[in-house]
Backbone:
């Protein structure tokens, strides 16, 4: 027991020296001060690698301070299929909520950017990989509907592994539901600015994420429907270098532009100037 305590204490001490103080860049592998990285919006000052930024941090980065009202925060998923793998779906939701500190995988609300009212939404990747189930789909649909009702541009930040398999078809139907609401927004000429973060894949990439009036990606973001390994196995060909990365997609006309994180607010502001006037 004494040995265990000593070992535990030593482990704790070891952790307290480096834990949370330093982080390794996923791009250049350089050791960086965690404070510096977070002050730089999680972008590596040496190589420019964009690490994950939370939905809440994005909201603070992009929107004007003060003008924020969250919507539909009380929506909760139902386990309609009684889905169980190694855990039940209910348990998974509970665990995800504890880990992410929010009850679902999408943040939606009304705010302003450069003094212009906007509908803002962002995926919470830490919540079950930002997967789109009935709650996420409903929140996005309502966001498009509010944009239409108030004639306010919609800015949506996608970061998702795709549809939430625990909800089966209910999850897949969110693709059609969200896109139908988006179509009504489009018919009314209300702009939709889609921001594609790393990663934007599966049912999210295959529905609204690539249907923006402007599709803007972050540098190096992985964007696509199926993963490269699945495609290579299916078509029995080796995929080109950089396939499904933002730069490749820009070159091939799938997205409109790439904006790095520090310039994303200015880029969206200019887009609003253009679309709204
Ligand atoms: Zn780096």
Residues:
């Amino acid at each position: 027991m004494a040995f265990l305590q000593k070992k535990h204490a030593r482990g704790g001490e070891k952790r307290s020296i480096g834990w949370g103080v330093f982080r390794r860049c996923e791009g250049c592998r350089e050791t960086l001060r965690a404070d510096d990285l977070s002050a730089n919006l999680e972008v590596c000052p040496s190589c420019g690698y964009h690490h994950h930024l939370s939905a809440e941090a994005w909201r603070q980065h992009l929107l004007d301070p003060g003008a924020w009202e969250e919507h539909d925060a009380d929506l909760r998923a139902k386990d309609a299929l009684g889905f169980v793998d190694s855990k039940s779906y209910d348990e998974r939701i509970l665990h995800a909520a504890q880990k992410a500190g929010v009850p679902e995988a999408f943040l939606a609300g009304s705010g302003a950017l450069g003094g212009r009212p906007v509908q803002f939404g962002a995926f919470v990747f830490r919540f079950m990989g930002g997967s789109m189930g009935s709650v996420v789909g409903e929140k996005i649909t309502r966001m498009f509907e509010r944009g239409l009702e108030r004639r306010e541009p919609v800015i949506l930040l996608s970061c998702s592994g795709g549809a939430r398999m625990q909800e089966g078809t209910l999850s897949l139907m969110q693709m059609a539901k969200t896109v139908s609401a988006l179509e009504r927004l489009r018919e009314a000429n209300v702009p939709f600015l889609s921001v594609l973060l790393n990663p934007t894949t599966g049912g999210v990439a295959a529905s609204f994420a690539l249907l923006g009036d402007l599709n803007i990606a972050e540098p190096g973001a992985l964007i696509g429907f199926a993963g490269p390994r699945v495609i290579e196995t299916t078509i029995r060909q080796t995929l080109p270098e950089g396939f499904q990365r933002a730069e490749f997609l820009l070159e091939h006309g799938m997205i409109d532009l790439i904006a790095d994180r520090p310039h994303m607010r200015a880029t969206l502001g200019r887009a609003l100037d253009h679309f709204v006037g």
The CA atoms of residues 16 and 41 lie 24 Å apart.
